[in-house]
Amino acid sequence: APLPFQFGFSVNEPGSKFTFAAKNYMHSPLGLFKDAEDPGTFLGKEAAIQRYTFFSPAVGYEISDEWSVGAGIQLSHQGFAIAQNNRAPNFLIAVTEILQDAFACEFDKPIGKRRDPLQPFLSLCQGNIGPWDSVGRIDIDMQQSLSPTYNLGVLWEPTDWFSWGASYMTGAEMELRGTFLMDYTDEWTAFWQGFNGSIIGAITAAILGLPRGVPFEAGNIYMDYEIPQTFKSGISMRVHPEWTVNLDATWTDWSVWDEWTFHFDRPLELLTTARLLSGLVTEDSLTLPLGLEDTWHYGIGITQHVNSRLDIRYGLELRDSPVGKDVFGPVPVGDMKHWGIGFGYKWDKQTKVGASMFYMQSVDYIPNNTSCNLNCTNFTNVV
C-alpha cells in the first residue's frame, strides 16, 4: 500500500516564547517478503508491523536565551500482520513419518486412492506428513486504531557554536485485535481424516484431542503488544564556519519484548499436536519467546554549509541488535548500519525545503541448531 501523505507545520509568532507544531508521520514501518520457495517462509512469508502517527501536536517554550523545553502527544494507529507457512516439527509427527516409510505408503497416487495396509484398524497412509513438511498457511491481521504516547524534550544552547538536547518518549501498552485464517494443506487434512476414520485412530484422537482434519479454521485473535520507551541525547558543534558535527546516542527499552503470546478464540488443530510436547503452546494460544535486550545505539551527522541558503547533510548510525543469537527468529533484526544523505535549502525568510535518503544494511549469520526460534533440530521445538 502507498505511504500516507506526510504533512507538518510549526507556528512561532514574532516576539513569542511559544512555538506550536503538528505533524503526521510513519513512526516505525517494518515489512518483510519472501519468495514461495524460500525456507524462511516458515518464519513469515509476508509480514508488516507498522505504527503510523496521524496526529502529533506539540508545544515548545523558550525559558531563556539558553534553555528551551518542549512536550508533545502522539496519536497513532498500530498494525500487525503476518502470513506464514507452518510445519509441525515434533516427535509425534516424526514417528508417523517413519511408520509411513515402513508401510511403503503409496504417496505417488492421488489422495483417496492410496492403499492403507492396516485398515480398518489403523490408517496412516491417506496423507503424507512429516516434521519438515508444510501443514498449511496462517494469515493474521491485527490492529489498534488509537494508541497514544507522549514525549518531553529539553534544549541547551550556551553559545552559537555548541548545543545539547535530550528527549524522552513513553512506551505504549496495547491489546491488538483482529482475525486469522489457518488454511491446511490437502495432505495434512487427508491424513487426519483417514486416521480418525480408523478404529485405533478414532480412540487415540478422542483421548489425546488430536486433529480431526478440517480443511481450514478462521476466527478472532488478540495479543498484548507494547511499544518500548526511548531516550535520546545529542550534541551539535559548529567546528568550522562551513561544517557542523552532530553526535547522538539512543536508548531503547527492548526488554519489554520478552515474548509474544497469540490468543485464538477457539482451539486450533495445529496447536493440539504441538501442545503435547511444548509448554509454549495450549490448544488456543501460542507463545513466541523473543528475549530482546535493551540497547544503546549511536550516530554521527555532518552538515556542510555550502552557502547562506544551501546545506548538505551526511549521516551514519550504528545499531546493535537487541536480539540474542540464541533467540534470533521472530524479530529478524540484526546489527544494522544506516547511511543517510540529504539537503536543506532556504528559499526565503519563511520557507525552507529539504529532502533526504537513507540506506540500511543488516547482515547476520546464525549457524544451524543455535537458535530455537529459527533452526533448532530437536523435535520438541514447535516454533
Determine the mean pLDDT.
89
Please trace the helix and strand order, writing H or E for each element: EEEEEEHEEEHHEEEEHEEEEEE
In the CATH hierarchy, the third-tier topology is known as: Porin
- Tell how many strands the DSSP assignment holds: 19
Q: Any idea what the CATH superfamily is called?
A: Outer membrane protein transport protein (OMPP1/FadL/TodX)
CATH architecture: Beta Barrel
Q: Count helical runs.
A: 4
In words, what does this structure look like?
The chain has one domain (8-362): Porin, CATH 2.40.160. Helix content is 10%, strand content 49%. The protein has helices at residues 91-102, 186-196, 199-208, 269-274; strands spanning 8-11, 18-23, 25-33, 46-55, 58-62, 67-87, 134-156, 162-169, 172-184, 216-227, 230-240, 243-252, 259-264, 281-282, 285-289, 295-305, 310-319, 336-346, 352-362. The chain has a 19-stranded antiparallel β-sheet that branches. Strand 14 (281-282) and strand 15 (285-289) form a beta hairpin. It is elongated. The relative contact order is 0.10.
Quick take:
The protein contains four helices and 19 strands. The chain is mostly beta strands and 383 residues long. The chain has one domain: Outer membrane protein transport protein (OMPP1/FadL/TodX) (Porin), CATH 2.40.160.
